């Protein structure tokens, strides 16, 4: 009966249940965006396992220097699930040139680098935003991850005051 009560407790969504899978303590997710001919936001945002968000604004951003915030464990879990869904660890280390699968290559774009450390494994992917592939490809998955990181950490508050003032 006690086991049934514990399972029921977990099932109804109690946050501190022992049976929930914890976020790996070594989790570290980073998105870095680079400048493009002095107009694109240049910053790095890092998310830790505990939800701590560190934003480092370098150029073309509203807030330069370091800022901190926190996101919920659910958002960290969503990011981890999204990396797994994108099969991030099986992707190439770079999507920048035609030899990386870019069918169209624009010359005036910024770059994004996404990195993750999870359960002792780490991977970093450089993505030149001028690299275009067909829909449903690795580049599309990277664009979605980049956008999700920005959205869940609300980087807009540090980048542009007009877009996401709340």
* Strands side by side in the biggest sheet: 4-3-2-1-7-8-5
Count the helices. How many? 4
Average the pLDDT over all residues and give the rounded result: 84
What's the end-to-end separation, in Å?
A: 48 Å
Backbone CA Rg: 18 Å
Number of strands: 9
Beta-strand percent range = 25-35%
The description of the largest β-sheet is: 7 strands, mixed
The general outline is: flat
**Helical content class:** 25-40%
Topology:
Elements (H helix, E strand, L loop, with lengths): L1 H10 L16 E6 L8 E7 L3 E8 L5 E6 L2 H13 L8 E2 L8 E2 L5 E8 L2 E8 L2 E2 L5 H16 L2 H4 L7
Parallel strand pairs: 5-8
Antiparallel strand pairs: 1-2, 1-7, 2-3, 3-4, 6-9, 7-8
Helix pairs in contact: 2-3
Protein described:
It is a single chain. With 166 residues, the chain is of the alpha+beta class. It is built from 4 helices and 9 strands; from the N terminus they run αββββαβββββαα. The chain has helices spanning 2-11, 73-85, 138-153, 156-159; strands at residues 28-33, 42-48, 52-59, 65-70, 94-95, 104-105, 111-118, 121-128, 131-132. The protein has a 7-stranded mixed beta sheet, covered by helices on one side. A two-stranded antiparallel sheet has the order 6-9. Helix 2 packs antiparallel against helix 3. It starts with a helix and ends in a 7-residue tail after the last helix.
């Amino acid at each position: 009966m006690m086991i049934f009560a514990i399972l029921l407790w977990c099932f109804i969504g109690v946050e501190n249940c022992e049976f929930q899978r914890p976020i790996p303590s070594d989790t570290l997710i980073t998105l870095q965006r680079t400048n493009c001919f002095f107009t694109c936001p240049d910053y790095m945002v890092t998310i830790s396992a505990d939800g701590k968000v560190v934003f480092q604004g370098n150029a073309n951003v509203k807030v330069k220097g370091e800022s901190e915030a926190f996101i919920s464990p659910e958002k960290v879990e969503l990011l981890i699930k999204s990396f797994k869904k994108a099969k991030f660890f099986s992707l190439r280390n770079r999507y920048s040139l035609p030899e990386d699968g870019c069918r169209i290559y624009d010359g005036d774009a910024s770059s994004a680098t996404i990195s993750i450390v999870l359960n002792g494994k780490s991977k970093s992917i450089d993505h030149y935003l001028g690299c275009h592939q067909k829909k449903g490809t690795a580049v599309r998955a990277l664009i979605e991850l980049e956008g999700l990181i920005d959205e869940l950490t609300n980087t807009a508050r540090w980048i542009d005051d007009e877009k996401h003032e709340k």
